[in-house]
Design brief:
The complex is a heterodimer of chains A (139) and B (199).
Chain A: E1 33-37, E2 41-44, H1 45-59, E3 64-67, E4 73-77, E5 90-98, E6 103-108, H2 112-125, E7 130-134
Antiparallel strand pairs in A: 1-6, 1-7, 2-5, 3-6, 4-5
Chain B: E1 4-11, H1 17-25, E2 28-33, E3 42-47, H2 48-56, E4 61-66, E5 69-80, E6 87-94, E7 101-110, E8 116-119, E9 123-128, E10 136-140, E11 149-151, E12 161-163, E13 170-175, E14 181-182
Parallel strand pairs in B: 1-4, 2-6, 7-10
Antiparallel strand pairs in B: 1-3, 2-3, 4-5, 5-6, 7-9, 8-13, 9-12, 11-13
The chains are: A alpha+beta (139), B mainly beta (199).
């Protein structure tokens, strides 16, 4: 099921502009492997769910999956064939704002080959380019 | 395994992100040397190629030559770029060759357990001679069942290495896979008074 916030401070927000790189959530922190975004974009709640299902099916339910993003941003749109004006459209879907370097999913409990296959399936569902990453040494 | 490697370093006079960016473009890595034993903090730049070559040879003790003097150092912390492709800064710690020092070493989890490894620690603090710092400490999780706790005292340490943490400190726990866990950051920033919205 697609996720959305339980409650929000503002019902509708501006579209905003994505720039810069991900300064938080850019390291594999929980699992053994991660899927990193290489581009900017909105990742809708449907994308997140589709990726989760793809990873789950590819690993046969054997892996633990961490979803590192949440769709906080309400995206509004006007109905088709509507004249301009009459206020801002209704909320259409919820999306996570993604910058390059953001870790989207993490996998644990599976060998590297299986994680690679799972992330390949997930990559097909993503609206931007992604790559698989591992932990980096700190010393 | 080589005992140590020599790195030629230059003192950095220009500091700041712009100067560091220029250094990186010229194949250098900005670094610094922590103060110890009355010696002052030093900002320096090392050759990226030399440093990476030494790391590939599993060297952990470096002799930094700067201004005609040589100092023995170990890496205290590495800073990577956002994509984890290149090292953008190195923090060195001064050491004495024959004296034990405390360092952090990566934990390498080996094998497939009957569950998922929940890492409580990613790296562990150890005491060892600077020339005997291991690349990583192996944690064998092969065939371990759900609910097994791996403690620091269970680790097989190489010769000349001893723990710098409590022996009962938890390193990892084997968890079962029931359903996907959801973790995300920055949710607290979105909470507040207001009406809920349905999509």
């Amino acid at each position: 099921m697609a996720t959305m916030p339980k409650r929000v401070k503002h019902r509708k927000v501006f579209r905003g502009r994505l720039k810069g790189l991900a300064t938080r959530g850019n390291r594999v922190s929980f699992g053994d492997f991660g899927l990193m975004s290489l581009d900017y974009g909105w990742m809708s709640a449907r994308h997140i769910e589709a990726g989760r299902v793809a990873a789950n099916r590819a690993t046969g339910g054997a892996a633990k999956i961490w979803i590192r993003v949440f769709p906080h941003k309400p995206i509004s749109s006007k109905p088709a064939e509507t004249r301009m004006g009459k206020g801002k459209g209704d909320v259409d879907f919820w999306a996570a704002e993604i910058k390059p370097g953001k870790i989207l999913y993490e996998l644990g409990g599976v060998p590297e080959e299986k994680a690679k296959l799972a992330f390949k399936r997930v990559a097909h569902k993503m609206p931007f380019k992604v790559k698989m990453v591992k932990r980096v040494p700190t010393t | 395994m080589a005992q140590s490697a020599t790195l030629k370093a230059e003192a950095r006079t220009k500091l700041g992100s712009r100067a560091c960016r220029a250094l990186r473009a010229n194949g250098m890595i900005p670094a610094n040397l922590q103060p110890a034993d009355g010696k002052e903090h030093l900002d320096l730049a090392i050759n990226e190629h030399e440093f990476l070559a030494a790391r590939r040879n599993h060297v952990h003790l470096y002799d930094i030559e700067i201004g005609g003097q040589s100092e023995s150092v170990v890496v205290r912390e590495l800073e990577w770029d956002v994509f984890g492709d290149s090292i953008i800064h190195v923090e060195f710690k001064r050491v004495q060759r024959g004296v034990e020092t405390e360092t952090e070493v990566e934990l390498a989890f080996v094998g497939m357990p009957k569950g998922v490894v929940n890492h409580t620690m990613q790296h562990i603090s150890i005491f060892s001679l600077p020339s005997m710092i291991p690349d990583a400490i192996e944690v064998n999780v092969e065939g371990l069942g759900e609910g097994t706790h791996i403690l620091a005292k269970d680790l097989k340490l190489p010769e000349g290495v001893r723990l710098a943490v409590e022996p009962d400190a938890e390193v990892a726990v084997i968890a079962g896979v029931r359903e996907e866990a959801t973790t995300e950051e920055g949710e607290e920033g979105e909470e507040g008074e207001g009406s809920s919205v349905e999509a």
